[in-house]
Design brief:
It holds the Pfam family Phage_integrase. InterPro entries: DNA_brk_join_enz (IPR011010), Integrase-like_cat_sf (IPR013762), Integrase_catalytic (IPR002104), Tyrosine_recombinase_XerCD (IPR050090). Helix 3 (about 55-70) packs antiparallel against helix 6 (about 115-125). The radius of gyration is 20 Å and the shape is globular. It has one domain: hpI Integrase, Chain A, CATH 1.10.443. Helix content is about 55%, strand content about 5%. The N and C termini lie far apart (about 75 Å). It has helices spanning about 5-25, 40-50, 55-70, 75-80, 80-85, 115-125, 150-165, 170-185, 190-195, 200-205, 210-220; strands at about 95, 110.
C-alpha cells in the first residue's frame, strides 16, 4: 500500500517528467532560463556542422532564415513554396505570413534581405519541379508534408546538441535576431514590427542585455 510520502514523490516525479517532455518537444524554457543568444562565431559553427551532414543545403537555409528573419519556428514550418518563391522561380524579398500561421492570429510581412535571398535561391533549386503548394522546407521522412512546428523544434534541439551549444534551442534564433537589432540601435517599434510582437514588454524579454548593448548606450550618450 502506498504511503502519503510515496504518493508525494510519485507526483513530483510525474510533474518533472511532463516538464522535461514539454521542453524537449515544444522547445519551452522556464522563465528563469531563456534560450541562448548565439554569437556570430557560434552561428558559423552551426553552419560548418551542417555542411558535413546530409541535407546540408536545406539545413543551411533553415538556420539562415531563422536568424535573418526572427520568425517563430511554427511560422517557418508553415511556409509553402508559393509563399517564398514567385511564379518566375525567384525568391521574394517579402514573405506574407497568413494570420492562421502566426501566434497573434494577425497577418504580417517578413522582409528578406539580399544576402538571405541568394542563400534561399540556392536551396530553391532543389525544389524547382515541386508543387508550389508543397512545404518550402521538406522533411526526410517518407510521406511527410514537410516539417511541423514540433518536428522542426526537435530538429534544432538535436542540431544544437550535436554542435555542443548548451542552452540553445529553436527560440535562440528569434532572441538573437531581436538582440542584434537592439545592439544596432534599431527602435523598439521597428523591432516589434519585424518580430510580430504586440507589446513592448514582450520584446524586452527577448533582448539580452550584454556588454555590446551597454557599450553602445554609453557611446551614444552625450549629456554635455
Amino acid at each position: 500500500m502506498l504511503t502519503n510520502w510515496h504518493k508525494s514523490v510519485a507526483e513530483r516525479n510525474k510533474r518533472k517528467q511532463h516538464r522535461d517532455i514539454a521542453k524537449l518537444w515544444l522547445g519551452k524554457e522556464t522563465m528563469s532560463k531563456q534560450a541562448k543568444v548565439l554569437s556570430g562565431a557560434e552561428i558559423r559553427k552551426v553552419l560548418d556542422y551542417c555542411a558535413t551532414r546530409k541535407h546540408s543545403q536545406r539545413n543551411r537555409a533553415l538556420v539562415l532564415i531563422m536568424f535573418n528573419t526572427g520568425m517563430r519556428v511554427s511560422e517557418v514550418a508553415s511556409l509553402r513554396i508559393k509563399d517564398v518563391v514567385d511564379s518566375e522561380g525567384n525568391i521574394k524579398n517579402e514573405i506574407r505570413l497568413l494570420a492562421e500561421n502566426t501566434k497573434t492570429n494577425e497577418a504580417r510581412t517578413v522582409f528578406v534581405n539580399e544576402k538571405l535571398c541568394k542563400e534561399l535561391q540556392q536551396y530553391a533549386k532543389l525544389l524547382k519541379n515541386d508543387n508550389p503548394n508543397n512545404k518550402f522546407f521538406y522533411s526526410q521522412k517518407k510521406d511527410s508534408d514537410g516539417f511541423t512546428a514540433n518536428t522542426l523544434t526537435q530538429h534544432f534541439h538535436y542540431l544544437y546538441k550535436r554542435v555542443g551549444l548548451d542552452g540553445a534551442s529553436s527560440h535562440s534564433s528569434r532572441r538573437t535576431f531581436i538582440t542584434t537589432l537592439a545592439n544596432k540601435g534599431i527602435g523598439i517599434r521597428v523591432i516589434m514590427g519585424l518580430s510580430g510582437h504586440k507589446a513592448i514588454s514582450s520584446v524586452q524579454c527577448y533582448i539580452d542585455c550584454n556588454s555590446e548593448l551597454m557599450r553602445n548606450a554609453v557611446e551614444n550618450l552625450a549629456v554635455v
